[in-house]
Design brief:
Length: 191
């Protein structure tokens, strides 16, 4: 999809830096339209983390959204020109969902993932736990629990690749995947 002529070069470079990122094979990324009205320029990706099983109906372990907001003039609330907004959602066991420490642990997954990213600052967010009990004609469904991490932070640089990798790490952590050993780079999927 061609970009209009008035798109800032800085935003184009940021989008190209995202395209250069290789994530783990369990993470399936898709481009979707960015939100309108929040910033002059935006882009977004969705992701599903699937089990490594080789079946057509692989289990979804986690899902999320990664949004890039860009305002060439900057925004005071962002403390910069690029703001990254993310969502990570995963199912958890009901007894885990009721653990009062879960929210703090989930937030630490986010801060740990972002810790080594240069130029990342002004992070904010929420962790939500949803416990579902079904009634009536749905009462045969088992109790379920879901964890949702919504976070945003400012990126000082237009190289957003490390930020996307941090988000992919957060997704994989929420999905319960073991971290890759230090120095191991995932290979791109075969087409």
């Amino acid at each position: 999809m061609p970009l209009p002529d008035d798109v800032p070069a800085e935003f184009i470079r940021a989008l190209r830096s995202l395209r250069a990122v290789t994530v783990r094979p369990e993470v399936v990324l898709d481009e979707v339209p960015g939100p309108a009205r929040i910033a002059p320029y935006s882009a977004a990706l969705t992701a599903e983390v699937r089990s490594a099983r080789r079946s057509l109906a692989a289990d979804e372990l986690a899902s999320g959204r990664f949004v890039v907001l860009h305002d060439p003039e900057g925004q005071d609330a962002w403390e910069g020109r690029f703001r990254l907004v993310t969502l990570v959602r995963t199912a958890v066991e009901p007894e885990v969902g009721t653990d009062p420490l879960l929210a703090g642990v989930a937030w630490s997954w986010f801060t740990d993932a972002l810790a080594g990213v240069p130029g990342a600052h002004s992070a904010a967010g929420t962790v939500t736990r949803v416990l579902s009990h079904s009634f009536g004609s749905l009462e045969r469904r088992e109790e379920s629990s879901e964890l949702e991490i919504r976070a945003s932070w400012t990126a000082d640089d237009q190289d957003l690749g490390p930020h996307l990798l941090a988000w992919a790490t957060l997704l994989c952590t929420a999905a319960g995947l073991e971290p890759l050993p230090h120095g191991v780079t995932p290979l791109p999927p075969r087409r």
